[in-house]
Every structure is written in C-alpha cells, then in structure tokens.
Design a protein that fits this description.
Elements lengths: L1 H15 L3 H8 L3 H14 L19 H13 L6 H12 L5 H9 L10 H17 L3 H8 L22 E11 L2 E10 L5 E7 L4 H14 L5 E4 L23 H12 L2 E4 L7 H20 L5 H19 L16 H7 L2 E6 L6 E3 L2 E6 L13 E6 L5 E5 L2 E7 L33 H9 L2 H6 L1
Helix pairs in contact: 1-2, 1-3, 2-3, 7-8
GO molecular function, one term: nucleic acid binding
Protein name: ISNCY family transposase
InterPro entries: Homeodomain-like_sf, Integrase_cat-core, ISNCY_transpos, RNaseH-like_sf, RNaseH_sf
Length: 459
C-alpha cells in the first residue's frame, strides 16, 4: 500500500506539475528524494516503486521442512511440554536451535497452545475457533478444531521469599502419573529463599519413608535447616481420632516419629491446610508435571527405582535452570550431622512384647535380642521392647535403658552337627551397638509421647 501511494502521488505531481514540498510532506521525505522518485518514474514507470526485497526470503528463515519437523516432534515425541522446555529439548536432543517465539508462531497456526498459556491467550483462541466452526460445514473438521483448545492451570498468589538460605523449607508430595502410566507420589523439599530443590524422592504413597528420604538428602548435602513448612498430613500434624476401645499404635503414629526426629535435630515444623500458603512448592509441582514427565518418558523410566536414580542428576539440572544463586544469600543451615547420627535419627519405631520364647515378632519374622558379642539376652514374657529400624535397614531393640541387636531367627538351622562336617567355631566378633546417647532411647521417647496433646486426650 505504501508503494502504491508513492506511485499515485508522484504520478499526479508529474502530470500536474505540482509542488515538490507538498509531495514531500505527504510521503515524509525530503524534496531532493522527490526528485529521485520523479526521475525513476519517468525512466521505469510503476515498476520503479516496487521494493527490491519483494518476494525474497531472509537468510535466517526456517525452511518448511524444519517447521513441519518441529510440529511433528511436538505432536508425537514432546507432547505436553511447555514451549520454553520444548525449545530447550530441541536444542539439547535434536540440534535444532529455535526461539520460543518462533515455536509459538509455528504451533499457533495449527491452533496449538502451550499448556502454560495465559487465560487471555486461551480466550482469544477460543473466539477464533468459534468463528471457524461457524464457517465450516464439516463436522469432523469442527471437532478437530474444538479439541485444539487446551485447559490452563490456575495460578497461585505470590509471597515474599525468606531472607536466608535454609530459614524455611517447604515440603510436600504430589500424586501424578509421572512414569509408566501409574500414579506415584513425588516428595519434594524446596528452599523458600532461593527456590532450590534440596531433595526429591518417589514412593507409591505419601509416606513417612518418602519424607525421611528427602530429609536424609537435605541433612547429607546441606545440613540442618531451621524450619519445615508443610500441609496437615498425619506425618506432620496429628489428626486421627481413636475410638474409646482402641489404643493408639506407636507404629502407625507417624506424626510422633517424624516430629521426634525433627525435635532431636532442632527443626521447627509449621503446618497449614491452605495450599496457597506454600505456593512455592505448589508452583514447583506445576513445573515438574510439565517438564519431569517428559524427561522420564524420553529416558524410558518405568519403575520407582529407576526414577529415584534419575532424580539425582535432574535435581542439579532443575536448580541450574530455575533456582536463584546463593552467593549473595546468607546460609543459616547448621553443621551437617555425621552419618551415624542421621542413620539413627531417621528411624522407624515399633512397640513390641517379649514372647514366651524370649523373642520379638517383627514383620512376620522372629528376632532374638543379642549383645555386642552375639550372645542371646533373655527377658520375661510380656516385657515391653521398642524396636528401632534405622534408616539403613539395621534393626535394634531398646529394653529399658539398654540397646541390643536383633538377630533373625531362621526357621531351620543352616547346618547339622550329626550329618555335616564339623568346623571350628569362629571367635565371635564384637558388633556395633548404638551408645546410650543415641536419640531413640525408650525412656526419653516415652517422655516425648506424654507431652503430646493427643496422648493426653487419649489418656
């Protein structure tokens, strides 16, 4: 249109011998340039006003084959990716370097929006699709157009970050089809000040085991944080109401287990029933459900063990992409505890009774309390014992103020004195038994139980 307007102005100027200054004001150029346009018009006519780049493609233009390849990759291999993640994966795995804006325009022509698209973008596309549906007569085409509209996740309100690294860790779990077409729970701990993912663990359910594994990663890699901010799960906040005839089970009381472990480490626990209060970790789950699912699918992950192994490398990649640098942020993590203390602190406790065979039944197996030299220790039937399953799987037993090892009692003897060759008995080696300073002593644990409000109410 600009070229045609210039042509009409110059044509009228030449035919009427008009004023060059007036024509210069209309075209917004100098009178000297008007003289050039008059000369070109007299020599070449209307063809002189056609721009030299008309019909030429820029050197950086993507070819049609590349555009089709990007569209096919998104539909078949990288579906459900947000477009920023899709751009990163194309560069990393397909060696195709394109901007997010270019990808947006390619997909937008096929009525494909990002899963993280805004409400206004969704409304604009919906209006455009309705106009197309009104014009088209094919029901099949109308159905295809309608299916192109994607649902958009609700946003979460913002909240100021904490001042220090380790001041508050938001912890939660998300149930989703992360891999293999099955629903699993991803347990995550996020630092509020920097947004760093400090620990992550997959489990079949939202369990004490999952949160213990996340806490173990935090303690091993960073140290002891000041506070956890979580939801009102039974692991963190006691809500269960027992009937009058039923007694509270220490083994099922996961709040007591996790709460006592945090008490020994000096970690404060705050809970909230409002998801928006811990919006940092909720938004992280939105990001992970968009990105991690694709990453796990591309790696062929199909089991919880494989997924947990992959998380070790993915946490570094996630923090490098999304977390704030911690160079200028002061850390308030306390000194990292040693492995023995972590192993004994993150323990699962169960209350048992000594049977008439001086054994303890635990997980359908019989165990015999032994001392450090492997010599069996006998107690009266009905004696209360506290079974301690350490984080690494070792099992101990605390009776009163004394700690013993638990030796699995086999169903049959491994050998026979009458029929097998006699061998010299080995000198018993002293085995490691936690000292009395360990955090799960029976007396101190029982004192902690009595301080709990729900224990007083039950009593």
């Amino acid at each position: 249109m600009d070229e045609n307007q210039k042509y009409e102005i110059i044509k009228k100027l030449v035919e009427t011998n008009g004023n060059k200054k007036t024509a210069a004001l209309k075209i917004r150029c100098t009178p000297r340039h008007i003289s050039r346009l008059i000369k070109g018009y007299k020599e070449k006519g209307k063809a002189f006003f056609i721009h030299g780049n008309r019909g030429r493609q820029p050197s950086i233009t993507l070819s049609e084959d590349t555009k089709k390849l990007i569209l096919d990759l998104y539909r078949t291999k990288y579906y459900d990716c947000n477009l920023t993640h899709f751009s990163e994966l194309l560069n990393e795995m397909e060696d195709i370097k394109v901007s997010v804006g270019t990808i947006t325009s390619i997909l937008r022509k096929e009525f494909i929006l990002s899963p993280m698209a805004t409400r206004s973008s969704r409304k604009a596309l919906k209006k455009e699709l309705k106009d197309l549906q009104a014009k088209t007569k094919s029901m099949k085409k109308a159905a295809v157009i309608q299916s192109s509209i994607l649902d958009i996740e609700d946003s979460h309100p913002r909240r100021p970050r904490c001042a220090y690294f380790g001041e508050m860790l938001q912890m939660d779990a998300s149930m989703h089809e992360w891999f293999g077409g099955i629903k699993t729970h991803l347990h995550v701990a996020i630092d509020d000040a920097t947004g760093q993912m400090l620990g992550a663990y997959f489990d079949e359910q939202e369990t004490l085991k999952g949160y213990y594994n996340v806490l173990n990663q935090v303690l091993t890699n960073y140290g002891i944080p000041y506070q956890f901010f979580t939801d009102n799960r039974t692991v963190f906040e006691y809500k269960r109401k027992y009937e009058k005839k039923k007694e509270a089970s220490v083994e099922k009381d996961t709040f007591t287990q996790f709460g006592y472990a945090c008490k020994q480490l000096g970690i404060d626990i705050q809970t909230s029933s409002v998801p928006q209060a811990k919006g940092r970790v909720e938004r992280v789950f939105g990001t992970l459900q968009s990105r991690l699912v694709v990453e796990l699918r591309l790696r062929g992950v199909s089991s919880i063990e494989e997924a947990n192994k992959f998380l070790y490398s993915y946490i570094k990649k996630f923090n490098k992409r999304f977390a704030l640098p911690i160079d200028s942020i002061k850390s308030v993590f306390e000194t990292q505890p040693d492995n023995d203390k972590i192993n004994l602190t993150l323990a699962v406790i169960s209350s048992r009774k000594i049977d008439n065979g001086s054994c303890i039944k635990y997980h359908n197996e019989y165990y015999l309390p032994v001392n450090a030299y492997g010599v069996a220790v006998h107690y009266r039937k009905g004696t209360t014992a506290m079974v301690i399953k350490a984080f690494d799987g070792d099992i101990y037993c605390c009776i009163g103020e004394q700690v013993y090892l638990l030796e699995l009692l086999p169903h049959h003897k491994p050998s026979s004195k009458a029929f097998d060759l006699a061998t010299l008995p080995e000198k018993p080696k002293k085995k490691y038994i936690p000292p009395m300073s360990h955090p799960w002593k029976q007396a101190s644990f029982e004192r902690y139980l009595k301080k709990q409000l729900h224990r007083n109410n039950i009593a």
